[in-house]
Write a structure and sequence with these properties.
single chain, Quinone Oxidoreductase, Chain A, domain 1, two-stranded antiparallel ribbon, 1 helix, 4 strands
């Protein structure tokens, strides 16, 4: 069982909710990442507020977030490795 932050309507940060989420196993070529840090950037709060609803329409419930860091905890079948990341 995982925990997610989601919203079911556009609005202030108070529309954000926390709840459990059952995740299926990773599919072919996919990985599961346990997030250790999640950033909140202008795109995320603009999305939640509804400022981007015409440019980026959503289906509710929706989970905001476009940047995170974590640890790979599971790999799906046919996974061939991560691309090389330059530092």
């Amino acid at each position: 069982m995982s925990t997610r932050i989601y919203f079911t309507e556009y609005g202030e940060p108070t529309v954000l909710q926390v709840g459990p989420e059952e995740l299926p196993p990773p599919g072919s070529g996919q990985v599961r990442v346990e997030f250790r840090a999640v950033g909140v950037n202008p795109f995320d709060w603009s999305l939640v507020a509804g400022f981007l609803k015409d440019a980026a329409p959503l289906e509710f419930p929706s989970v905001p977030g476009s940047e995170a860091a974590g640890v790979v905890t599971e790999v799906g079948p046919a996974f061939e490795g991560l691309p090389l990341v330059m530092k």
